[in-house]
Amino acid sequence: MFYKHRQAYALPILSCGMALACVPDDGPQGRSSPMEPAVVLLSAHDYRFDAPDTIVVGYTSFRFVNESDQLHMAHLLMLDSGRTVHELLDAYGAGDPSARTVRPTFTDFVKRVPWARRFGGPAADAHATSAEVIQHLPAGRYAWICLRSTIDGVSHFSRGMTHPFVVRPTEDTAQPAMGHEAEVVIRLTDYAFAVSSPLTVGRTTIRVENIGPEPHELALLKLEPGKTMADFLSYLDDPQGPAPASRVAGVTALDPTLEAYLDVDLTRGDYVLACFISAPDGRSHIAHGMIRHIHVA
Ligand SMILES: [Cu+2]
Q1: 142 near 265, Cβ under 8 Å?
Q2: How many Å lie between the centroid of ligand 1 and the Cα of residue 215?
Protein backbone atom coordinates (compact mmCIF):
# COMPACT_ATOMS: atom_id res chain seq x y z
CA MET A 1 0.00 0.00 0.00
CA PHE A 2 2.81 2.33 0.85
CA TYR A 3 4.44 1.76 -2.53
CA LYS A 4 1.34 3.01 -4.30
CA HIS A 5 1.40 6.25 -2.41
CA ARG A 6 5.09 6.66 -2.79
CA GLN A 7 5.01 6.21 -6.54
CA ALA A 8 2.11 8.58 -6.87
CA TYR A 9 3.78 11.47 -5.16
CA ALA A 10 7.31 10.77 -6.34
CA LEU A 11 6.38 11.22 -9.99
CA PRO A 12 6.73 15.01 -10.11
CA ILE A 13 10.38 14.67 -9.05
CA LEU A 14 11.11 12.37 -11.96
CA SER A 15 9.40 14.64 -14.40
CA CYS A 16 11.38 17.71 -13.39
CA GLY A 17 14.74 16.10 -12.79
CA MET A 18 17.18 18.16 -10.78
CA ALA A 19 15.34 21.46 -11.05
CA LEU A 20 15.16 23.70 -8.01
CA ALA A 21 11.69 22.58 -7.20
CA CYS A 22 8.97 21.05 -9.23
CA VAL A 23 6.87 23.62 -10.98
CA PRO A 24 3.93 21.88 -12.59
CA ASP A 25 0.97 23.80 -13.97
CA ASP A 26 -0.94 23.78 -10.72
CA GLY A 27 1.40 25.92 -8.65
CA PRO A 28 4.84 26.45 -7.22
CA GLN A 29 5.38 22.92 -5.99
CA GLY A 30 4.94 19.40 -7.21
CA ARG A 31 1.62 17.89 -6.34
CA SER A 32 0.19 14.69 -7.64
CA SER A 33 -3.12 14.73 -5.80
CA PRO A 34 -4.67 16.67 -2.92
CA MET A 35 -4.48 13.52 -0.80
CA GLU A 36 -0.69 13.31 -0.99
CA PRO A 37 2.06 15.57 0.29
CA ALA A 38 3.41 18.15 -2.12
CA VAL A 39 6.96 17.26 -3.17
CA VAL A 40 9.74 19.82 -2.87
CA LEU A 41 13.25 19.12 -4.06
CA LEU A 42 16.10 20.96 -2.35
CA SER A 43 19.77 20.79 -3.07
CA ALA A 44 22.82 21.85 -1.08
CA HIS A 45 26.11 23.17 -2.40
CA ASP A 46 29.09 24.80 -0.68
CA TYR A 47 27.59 27.16 0.54
CA ARG A 48 24.09 27.71 -0.74
CA PHE A 49 20.71 26.07 -1.20
CA ASP A 50 18.85 25.66 -4.43
CA ALA A 51 15.32 25.84 -3.08
CA PRO A 52 11.96 27.38 -3.91
CA ASP A 53 10.90 30.76 -2.50
CA THR A 54 7.27 29.76 -1.99
CA ILE A 55 5.46 26.64 -0.80
CA VAL A 56 1.74 26.13 -0.30
CA VAL A 57 0.36 25.38 3.18
CA GLY A 58 -0.19 21.69 3.97
CA TYR A 59 1.88 18.52 4.07
CA THR A 60 5.12 18.79 2.15
CA SER A 61 7.61 16.04 1.41
CA PHE A 62 11.16 17.36 1.31
CA ARG A 63 13.78 15.52 -0.64
CA PHE A 64 17.23 16.93 -0.09
CA VAL A 65 20.14 16.25 -2.40
CA ASN A 66 23.57 17.11 -1.07
CA GLU A 67 25.88 17.90 -3.99
CA SER A 68 28.92 18.67 -1.84
CA ASP A 69 31.75 16.82 -0.11
CA GLN A 70 30.48 17.44 3.43
CA LEU A 71 27.31 16.92 5.46
CA HIS A 72 24.70 19.65 5.12
CA MET A 73 21.26 20.16 6.57
CA ALA A 74 18.22 21.97 5.26
CA HIS A 75 17.02 22.86 8.74
CA LEU A 76 13.71 24.72 8.80
CA LEU A 77 13.07 27.69 11.03
CA MET A 78 9.70 29.42 11.24
CA LEU A 79 10.08 33.13 11.96
CA ASP A 80 7.58 35.12 14.01
CA SER A 81 5.75 37.87 12.16
CA GLY A 82 8.00 40.81 11.35
CA ARG A 83 11.25 38.91 11.91
CA THR A 84 13.74 38.49 9.10
CA VAL A 85 16.50 36.09 8.17
CA HIS A 86 18.96 38.97 8.67
CA GLU A 87 17.89 39.28 12.28
CA LEU A 88 18.18 35.53 12.67
CA LEU A 89 21.72 35.53 11.33
CA ASP A 90 22.59 38.42 13.66
CA ALA A 91 21.13 36.49 16.61
CA TYR A 92 23.21 33.46 15.61
CA GLY A 93 26.36 35.57 15.39
CA ALA A 94 26.88 35.13 11.65
CA GLY A 95 28.91 38.33 11.48
CA ASP A 96 31.23 37.18 14.24
CA PRO A 97 34.02 35.08 12.76
CA SER A 98 34.68 33.49 16.17
CA ALA A 99 31.07 32.32 16.59
CA ARG A 100 30.82 28.55 16.45
CA THR A 101 27.37 27.14 16.64
CA VAL A 102 28.16 23.58 15.70
CA ARG A 103 31.48 22.03 16.55
CA PRO A 104 33.08 19.61 14.14
CA THR A 105 32.12 16.99 16.72
CA PHE A 106 28.56 17.55 15.48
CA THR A 107 26.95 18.94 18.62
CA ASP A 108 24.45 21.69 17.89
CA PHE A 109 25.32 24.66 20.11
CA VAL A 110 23.00 27.08 18.37
CA LYS A 111 21.58 29.85 20.49
CA ARG A 112 17.91 29.64 21.53
CA VAL A 113 16.03 32.40 19.69
CA PRO A 114 12.49 32.79 21.08
CA TRP A 115 10.98 34.16 17.85
CA ALA A 116 12.37 31.42 15.60
CA ARG A 117 10.77 27.97 15.93
CA ARG A 118 12.94 25.02 15.05
CA PHE A 119 10.79 23.17 12.59
CA GLY A 120 12.70 20.08 11.49
CA GLY A 121 13.73 19.46 7.91
CA PRO A 122 16.17 16.99 6.32
CA ALA A 123 19.94 16.52 6.42
CA ALA A 124 22.15 14.46 4.13
CA ASP A 125 25.71 13.22 4.03
CA ALA A 126 28.09 14.24 1.27
CA HIS A 127 26.82 13.30 -2.21
CA ALA A 128 23.73 11.66 -0.74
CA THR A 129 20.00 12.15 -0.96
CA SER A 130 18.07 12.36 2.28
CA ALA A 131 15.21 10.11 3.15
CA GLU A 132 11.95 11.94 2.61
CA VAL A 133 10.97 14.19 5.49
CA ILE A 134 7.27 15.02 5.42
CA GLN A 135 5.95 17.86 7.50
CA HIS A 136 2.86 19.98 7.88
CA LEU A 137 3.89 23.58 7.38
CA PRO A 138 1.45 26.27 8.50
CA ALA A 139 1.40 29.53 6.56
CA GLY A 140 4.16 31.93 7.53
CA ARG A 141 7.73 33.02 6.91
CA TYR A 142 10.53 30.50 7.13
CA ALA A 143 14.17 29.97 6.33
CA TRP A 144 16.28 27.00 5.42
CA ILE A 145 19.57 27.15 7.21
CA CYS A 146 22.59 24.90 7.57
CA LEU A 147 23.89 24.88 11.15
CA ARG A 148 26.98 22.83 10.41
CA SER A 149 30.43 24.36 10.62
CA THR A 150 33.53 23.83 8.55
CA ILE A 151 36.37 21.99 10.27
CA ASP A 152 37.94 25.34 11.09
CA GLY A 153 34.75 26.32 12.89
CA VAL A 154 33.04 28.69 10.47
CA SER A 155 29.29 28.20 10.39
CA HIS A 156 27.90 27.32 6.98
CA PHE A 157 25.14 29.94 7.35
CA SER A 158 27.70 32.71 7.82
CA ARG A 159 29.07 31.65 4.43
CA GLY A 160 25.66 32.18 2.90
CA MET A 161 23.94 28.87 3.49
CA THR A 162 20.48 30.15 4.22
CA HIS A 163 17.41 30.67 2.07
CA PRO A 164 14.21 32.47 3.12
CA PHE A 165 10.85 31.21 1.91
CA VAL A 166 7.17 31.74 2.44
CA VAL A 167 4.46 29.18 3.09
CA ARG A 168 1.43 30.81 1.61
CA PRO A 169 -2.18 30.08 2.48
CA THR A 170 -4.42 28.65 -0.21
CA GLU A 171 -8.11 29.03 -0.85
CA ASP A 172 -8.14 25.48 -2.10
CA THR A 173 -9.95 23.47 0.57
CA ALA A 174 -8.08 20.30 -0.48
CA GLN A 175 -4.65 20.95 0.94
CA PRO A 176 -1.86 18.44 0.43
CA ALA A 177 -2.42 15.71 3.03
CA MET A 178 -0.15 13.17 4.65
CA GLY A 179 -1.58 10.37 2.50
CA HIS A 180 -0.29 7.38 4.42
CA GLU A 181 -0.03 6.21 8.01
CA ALA A 182 3.12 5.75 10.04
CA GLU A 183 4.06 2.18 10.92
CA VAL A 184 6.39 3.24 13.73
CA VAL A 185 6.34 6.19 16.14
CA ILE A 186 9.52 7.52 17.71
CA ARG A 187 8.93 9.95 20.57
CA LEU A 188 11.70 12.33 21.56
CA THR A 189 11.84 13.08 25.28
CA ASP A 190 14.33 14.61 27.72
CA TYR A 191 16.50 12.59 27.15
CA ALA A 192 15.56 9.41 25.34
CA PHE A 193 14.05 7.86 22.21
CA ALA A 194 10.85 5.89 22.77
CA VAL A 195 10.36 3.57 19.79
CA SER A 196 6.83 2.12 19.43
CA SER A 197 7.83 -1.08 17.60
CA PRO A 198 10.99 -2.57 16.09
CA LEU A 199 12.24 -1.09 12.82
CA THR A 200 12.43 -3.66 10.06
CA VAL A 201 14.10 -4.03 6.67
CA GLY A 202 12.35 -2.24 3.81
CA ARG A 203 10.28 0.88 3.47
CA THR A 204 8.83 2.31 6.65
CA THR A 205 7.12 5.53 7.60
CA ILE A 206 8.15 6.80 11.02
CA ARG A 207 6.29 9.54 12.84
CA VAL A 208 8.76 11.54 14.91
CA GLU A 209 7.19 13.49 17.77
CA ASN A 210 8.92 15.83 20.16
CA ILE A 211 7.06 15.41 23.45
CA GLY A 212 9.80 16.89 25.64
CA PRO A 213 10.34 20.47 26.76
CA GLU A 214 13.64 20.72 24.88
CA PRO A 215 14.12 20.90 21.09
CA HIS A 216 15.23 17.50 19.81
CA GLU A 217 16.31 15.87 16.61
CA LEU A 218 16.40 12.34 15.33
CA ALA A 219 19.58 11.40 13.51
CA LEU A 220 19.53 7.84 12.22
CA LEU A 221 23.02 6.58 11.49
CA LYS A 222 24.06 3.16 10.25
CA LEU A 223 27.17 1.63 11.78
CA GLU A 224 29.76 0.37 9.32
CA PRO A 225 30.17 -3.43 9.41
CA GLY A 226 32.13 -4.48 12.49
CA LYS A 227 31.78 -1.07 14.19
CA THR A 228 30.10 -0.68 17.57
CA MET A 229 28.42 2.01 19.65
CA ALA A 230 31.69 2.35 21.58
CA ASP A 231 33.48 3.14 18.29
CA PHE A 232 30.85 5.71 17.48
CA LEU A 233 31.09 7.39 20.90
CA SER A 234 34.87 7.58 20.73
CA TYR A 235 34.63 9.05 17.24
CA LEU A 236 32.31 11.79 18.57
CA ASP A 237 34.89 12.62 21.25
CA ASP A 238 37.76 12.63 18.80
CA PRO A 239 36.76 12.48 15.12
CA GLN A 240 39.87 10.97 13.57
CA GLY A 241 39.87 8.80 10.48
CA PRO A 242 36.81 7.50 8.66
CA ALA A 243 33.50 7.81 10.50
CA PRO A 244 32.27 4.50 11.97
CA ALA A 245 28.70 5.37 10.96
CA SER A 246 26.97 7.33 8.24
CA ARG A 247 23.73 9.25 8.44
CA VAL A 248 21.03 7.46 6.51
CA ALA A 249 18.04 9.53 7.55
CA GLY A 250 16.79 11.95 10.12
CA VAL A 251 14.75 14.94 11.10
CA THR A 252 16.69 18.00 12.25
CA ALA A 253 15.66 19.83 15.42
CA LEU A 254 11.96 20.03 16.21
CA ASP A 255 10.72 22.40 18.88
CA PRO A 256 8.41 20.96 21.56
CA THR A 257 5.03 19.64 20.34
CA LEU A 258 6.14 19.50 16.68
CA GLU A 259 6.22 16.34 14.61
CA ALA A 260 7.51 15.14 11.26
CA TYR A 261 7.31 11.96 9.21
CA LEU A 262 10.28 10.14 7.88
CA ASP A 263 10.01 7.73 4.95
CA VAL A 264 13.02 5.45 5.14
CA ASP A 265 14.20 2.39 3.26
CA LEU A 266 16.25 0.39 5.76
CA THR A 267 18.69 -2.40 5.14
CA ARG A 268 19.71 -5.02 7.67
CA GLY A 269 22.30 -3.88 10.17
CA ASP A 270 23.08 -1.90 13.29
CA TYR A 271 21.96 1.67 13.66
CA VAL A 272 22.33 4.52 16.10
CA LEU A 273 19.59 6.99 17.05
CA ALA A 274 21.17 10.20 18.30
CA CYS A 275 20.23 13.76 19.21
CA PHE A 276 23.07 16.24 18.76
CA ILE A 277 21.31 19.22 20.36
CA SER A 278 23.01 20.82 23.35
CA ALA A 279 21.13 21.14 26.65
CA PRO A 280 20.87 24.36 28.70
CA ASP A 281 23.74 23.08 30.86
CA GLY A 282 26.01 23.07 27.80
CA ARG A 283 26.29 19.29 27.55
CA SER A 284 24.97 17.52 24.50
CA HIS A 285 21.73 15.58 24.66
CA ILE A 286 23.87 12.56 23.79
CA ALA A 287 25.82 13.11 27.02
CA HIS A 288 22.44 13.15 28.81
CA GLY A 289 21.64 9.74 27.36
CA MET A 290 19.89 10.61 24.11
CA ILE A 291 21.60 7.95 22.06
CA ARG A 292 20.41 4.45 21.37
CA HIS A 293 21.53 1.40 19.46
CA ILE A 294 18.98 -0.50 17.38
CA HIS A 295 19.31 -3.57 15.25
CA VAL A 296 17.26 -3.76 12.05
CA ALA A 297 16.47 -7.26 10.86
CU1 LIG B 1 17.55 15.98 22.15
Answers
A1: no
A2: 6
CATH homologous superfamily, domain 2-168: Cupredoxins -  blue copper proteins (2.60.40.420)
- pLDDT class of 153 with cuts at 50, 70, 90: confident
Q: 2-168 with 184-296: one CATH topology? A: yes
Separation of alpha carbons 288 and 123, rounded Å: 23
Domain 184-296 classified CATH 3.40.50.10580? Answer: no
Give the start-to-end residue ranges of the domains of the chain. Answer: 2-168, 184-296
Instruction: State the distance from the centre of ligand 1 to the C-alpha of 194, rounded, in angstroms.
Output: 12
- What value does the mean pLDDT take over residues 232-239? 89
C-alpha 112/C-alpha 65 separation (Å) is 28
pLDDT tens readout for residues 65-105: 999 998 899 999 999 999 999 999 999 888 776 655 545 44
Rounded distance from Cα 16 to ligand 1 centre (Å): 36
Q: How far apart are CA 13 and CA 96, in angstroms?
A: 39
Q: How many residues does the chain have?
A: 297
pLDDT at 27 over 90: no
CA of 109 to the centre of ligand 1 (A): 12
Q: State pTM to two decimals.
A: 0.85
CA 134 / ligand 1 centre spacing (Å): 20
